[in-house]
Give the backbone structure.
Amino acid sequence: MASKFLPSRLPLPLNSPRFHRLPSTNKTMIPIASFSSSSPSASSVDNSVRKQEEEEEELQEKVAQALTYHHQTKHGFANYARGPRGLDWANQPNPFRRYISAPLLPLLHFPTDRPIVAVTDDAPLYSSLFHSLPPPKPISHSTISQLFFDSLALSAWKTTGFSTWSLRVNPSSGNLHPTEAYLIAPPIQSISDSPFVAHYAPKEHSLELRATIPSGFFPNFFPDNSFLIGISSIFWREAWKYGERAFRYCNHDVGHAIGAIAMAAATLGWDVKLLDGFGYKDLEQLMGLQFFPDFKIPSRPIKGKFPEIEFEHPDCLILVFPNGSNPFDVNYKELSSVVNEFTNLEWKGKSNSLSKEHICWDIIYRTAEAVKKPLTIQKGEFLVDQFKSSGICSENSYKGFTIREVVRKRRSAVDMDGVTVMDRQTFYQILLHCLPSGKGEKHRRQSTLPFRALSWDAEVHAAIFVHRVIGLPKGLYFLVRNEDHLEELKMATRSEFKWEKPEGCPDDLPLYELASSDCRELAKHLSCHQDIASDGCFSLGMMAHFEPTLSEKGAWMYPRLFWETGVLGQVLYLEAHAVGISATGIGCFFDDPVHELLGFRGSKFQSLYHFTVGGPVLDKRIMSLPAYPGPSIDA
């Protein structure tokens, strides 16, 4: 019986694994015995070996710091990760970054309600984008406006009593929105006569012009009709509420933003891809973030006035280009040299202050330092994967919504009703859109929408608790998103698990039933005792191929694993709304008890994000107001 390894009473969490220095890999052994100690060549070889060893040691220390952060910020039944003991409402961060005195360039608005919204070139059916992309549109004031309107803009205002707050198209943990965005583009009529860098201001749905850049930047390095979007994070916005665990949530939100941008770009016939060869310093200079003051990281959490922790950490750079483009060269070395000169540009505007007082959670900033990506001098063409259609088994599950209706009406459910059910084919269809590769392919390479924005093979899987899916037994299931990991997963999980394809499962959906059991109470307790994890149709935990990925590629993959979970979460949000229900990301869960349930030991696989999908409970006390024009408050 499954109950023997799906206990109704969960044990206390396992002890966190001891931290250790990872073994060196790929070390080049240079024979030096044949050289005398006085030989200049021997000295040169000694220095080369010593330098290589020092570099490897530094890389290992960075991975160790990422692992230390990850284990230190786990929640357990006996204790939660460190955070504030209450919410300091007087110092709640301003959710809107502005660059004071920078020219404000308004963007266009678009209809959002039926019958005004119709299936048009501007707003195709949501489900159609998973089959093929429309012809690419030119870059213009209108299309740039539409891209931001359907990805990072405000979607509504909410009010109850004396409280009013905004919602955005891109979701965020706690609705705190640490994510900022920058447009780096060639000249665009009605926006700028010169190539430019601008900050996106979502409250105003406008661009703040930060700088004009050299005229040869785009024609020398990028294909025609392309532009860049930079993403950055303000850790303090999340840390105000969540303390040390905030670094995780900021990177979830980066993934949500990447997914939101990819979907909005697809509507316009544009493809997107991370330019992941750039290093941290390149991104900082390209977005004009080098002017935030440096600060000394304290040795422990400390409260006081630390305006310097309101800086923006540059996360990634997204290339937006016409779909169907041929492969092209990206010379990162030359690009880096050009971007290095951006420091000398005339940057406009001064960043606004977000809070009067702060708590500096030192481990966040120590880890952010450790996971900074260096410049990668990649050779060869920038590979543009051919667009791959996602699998189809129940397209009738979708309610005929346009992409704009889905993305702009997306909401995070606060509660699930515990009643709504889902049919099996709809469940399978949602999971087909969660896969990285095209229908009929072995799943590994991320080539479907929106995962094709990512530059690495899939590293994240999903352990699924099925609660209310008609035609499918309640129980624990597993979605394998990289089939190269299948045997490794079977070896890493409990020997009692069945690993059988469920009834009616499409051939190209690598979903496996592990155990049949009513998991509602179990899912609830694993997600910090939250009813929302048990009251939906299903909930899940996203399991990353963790320590091997960091060991092989470097500490800079740590945030990227969270980005992948954020993109996957974005798909789940949109899929839920497209079939007429809702979803919510769950950042609070008991890490090691989840691993214990599955049988994971050590850090080979780790749970990074949880999610629930089901029928929402609407709070009728809360009134919705239009996103634009919003109330004249800074909230």
In short: The chain has two domains: 2-13+416-614, 99-379. The chain has 15 helices and 24 strands. The radius of gyration is 24 Å.
